Recover the amino acids of this structure.
């Protein structure tokens, strides 16, 4: 899969750690030269050290139309919104952004711009699942080939009290992007231990959607 990541901060770095970079071609756009230098040291990815809001770079420096997924992880909602709009305009199938404003998330969904990961929404669904006594996976966003899903971990689940590197699942088709622990959204490292009542956000190949419980529940 060809993946374009916007922003090279902590979330992006943790995300890159989870990816098998031998199987994915990743390009990162980051405007801070120091951050670009650090990324180059630790990750085998293409780095473009420019401002992501420069619309012209998406056809001159790179061809955005060649990517399968665009992931916007900057700390500015307006930049991430711009990236989703641009990705949709060029027909990118997987479009994901991290935002802080729930109202903006609703707008993104209404305009079908992609999927927005928002901490308040994750909290609400976690509370609802616990009150309802259910922890079924919930689809946040779907494209032709992938689905972005959330799942609340119960005490009896296979993944409960396990580190990511201890889990057995097809890592080329299931990508664990984030974990919500009740207070904050975490981008987990390979030695991160998943606890009961945490909420796991993952990108799943559609052909495995009905088998997700086999690996995690």
């Amino acid at each position: 899969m060809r993946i374009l990541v916007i922003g090279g901060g902590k979330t992006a770095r943790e995300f890159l750690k989870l990816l098998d970079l031998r199987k994915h071609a990743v390009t990162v756009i980051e405007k801070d030269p120091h951050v670009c230098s650090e990324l180059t040291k630790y990750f085998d990815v293409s780095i473009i050290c420019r401002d992501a809001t420069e619309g012209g770079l998406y056809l001159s420096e790179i061809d955005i139309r060649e990517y399968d997924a665009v992931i916007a992880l900057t700390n500015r909602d307006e930049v991430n919104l711009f990236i989703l709009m641009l990705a949709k305009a060029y027909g990118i199938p997987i479009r994901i952004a991290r935002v802080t404003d729930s109202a903006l998330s609703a707008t993104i969904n209404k305009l079908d711009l992609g999927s927005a990961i928002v901490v308040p929404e994750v909290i609400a669904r976690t509370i609802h699942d616990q009150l309802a006594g259910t922890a079924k996976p919930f689809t946040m966003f779907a494209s032709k080939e992938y689905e972005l899903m959330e799942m609340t971990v119960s005490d009896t689940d296979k993944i409960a009290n396990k580190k990511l590197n201890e889990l057995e699942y097809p890592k080329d088709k299931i990508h664990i992007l984030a974990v919500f622990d009740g207070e904050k959204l975490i981008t987990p490292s390979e030695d991160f231990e998943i606890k009961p009542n945490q909420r796991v956000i993952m990108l799943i190949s559609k052909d495995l959607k009905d088998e997700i419980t086999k690996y995690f529940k």
Summary: The chain has two domains: 2-117, 120-216. The two ends are 27 Å apart (CA to CA). Residues 146 and 205 are 5 Å apart (CA to CA).
